[in-house]
Design brief:
By secondary structure, this protein is an alpha/beta fold. It has one domain: Hexapeptide repeat proteins (UDP N-Acetylglucosamine Acyltransferase, domain 1, 3 Solenoid). It has helices at about 15-25, 35-40, 40-60, 65-75; strands at about 80, 85, 90-95, 100, 105, 110-115, 120, 130-135, 140, 145, 150, 155, 160-165, 170-175, 180. β14 and β15 (about 180) form a beta hairpin. α3 packs antiparallel against α4. The mean pLDDT is about 90. It is an enzyme of class 2 (transferase). InterPro entries: Hexapep, LbH_SAT, Ser_AcTrfase_N_sf, Ser_O-AcTrfase, Serine_acetyltransferase, Trimer_LpxA-like_sf.
Length: about 190
């Protein structure tokens, strides 16, 4: 599951940067070089900005600054990640435009997110109101995961699926509303 920024296993700034660049080169066949990813990948830029805003969000008196920085990052990248969201390591947002990740969402490690994905809330209740996405999950383009649901490890959510219920590990989730089935060919995304 997602690691806290102060976890002893978490590499430093440059270690995370190298890890992020390697993940983009591994996940995106169109990526030609580390420099291209560093300078031209909006999904990476959004994740890097989120690391900063998340740290600000956790400090007393800096929530407004965190929101302002996150909105500026949204303006630049087309990706909206609330500073309160928890994002794991080696997450890759491919193309990025239109991705929305809500305040109480948790994204595990090694998750692949395509453009247009929403990890959104339902209603105006307080507390947990956004999805939890466990490790090694693929979220297809345009998928909408709504409410305090959990998508189990190793699952794949199909493009444009609307997911309103939990899915156990190694599920294939497709349709509107989404239907959960066992994932026959388990392959890490």
């Amino acid at each position: 599951m997602a690691e806290s920024p102060k976890s002893p296993q978490t590499p430093g700034f440059f270690g995370r940067l190298r890890e992020d660049l390697a993940v983009a080169l591994r996940r995106d066949p169109a990526a030609r070089s580390r420099v291209e990813v560093l300078l031209g990948y909006s999904g990476m830029h959004a994740l890097w900005a989120h690391r900063l805003t998340h740290r600000l969000w956790q400090r007393d008196g800096l929530k407004v600054l965190a929101r302002l920085v996150s909105q500026f990052a949204r303006f630049l990248t087309g990706v909206e990640i609330h500073p309160g969201a928890t994002i794991g390591r080696r997450v890759f947002i491919d193309h990025g435009m239109g991705v929305v990740i809500g305040e109480t969402a948790t994204v595990g490690n090694d998750v692949l997110i395509y453009h247009g994905v929403t990890l959104g809330g339902t209603g105006a209740s307080h507390g947990l109101r956004h999805p939890t996405v466990e490790d090694d999950v693929l979220l297809g383009a345009g998928a909408k995961l709504l409410g305090p649901i959990t998508i189990g490890r190793g699952s794949a959510v199909g493009a444009n699926a609307v997911v309103l219920t939990d899915a156990p590990p190694h599920s294939l989730i497709t349709g509107v509303p989404a239907v959960v089935r066992p994932r026959v060919h388990r392959q890490v995304p």
